[in-house]
Amino acid sequence: MVGEKNDGLLLLDFWVSPFGQRCRIALAEKGLPYKHVEEDLFGGKIDFLLRSNPVHKKIPVLLHDGKPINESLVILQYLDEAFLGTPSFLPVDPHAYTRFWADYIDKKVFDFGTRLWKLKGEPQMQARAEMLQILRTLEVEIGKKEFFGGEHGFRFVDATFALATAWFETFESSGEFSVAEVVPSLAVWAARCGERESVAKSLYSPEKVYDFIGRLRKKLGIG
Fold it and tell me: For the whole model, what pTM was predicted?
């Protein structure tokens, strides 16, 4: 049975989930083979997911020989700890910097990004202003570095944020701004991430994500 002991790595996911995409990028960066179970978030959650993540009842969930690990940032940290022979995401020191920015991205970007495409009128304009400030904050942090990992290259913060590049078109269209104009250094970083095989093969095109959100808006009656 899928997900039982000695079954290797199994990812419960949904194709457009940004947090599932984050896990796919990490697994690809580490060169770890895994099986994949696609969830249908609109067709009712399967019993296997509910048993694997009974608290939050959501994806992504990574099972390692049947043991469930929940929450995408926790999954990335687990992969570093469980597979020591693979490229490391977390620096030996300082962890605090990495965890701060990963947490900032995790809590800010998709919260306000979702508000951008869900809301209208003044609440949407407030979300737009917040999103622009978030992006400008990240622009200052990336500066002239190739990656957030600095001299260490593509690391934990990059893997945490790289998934957002597939969503930029949706954010731009909803908020009526241009990432390249507002935060040019971040746009260059996004393009550089997109050239990595791990990112390119883990993300769907911005156009497909944008089309999905358009259909979701109609389904929710906000199109």
Answer: 0.89
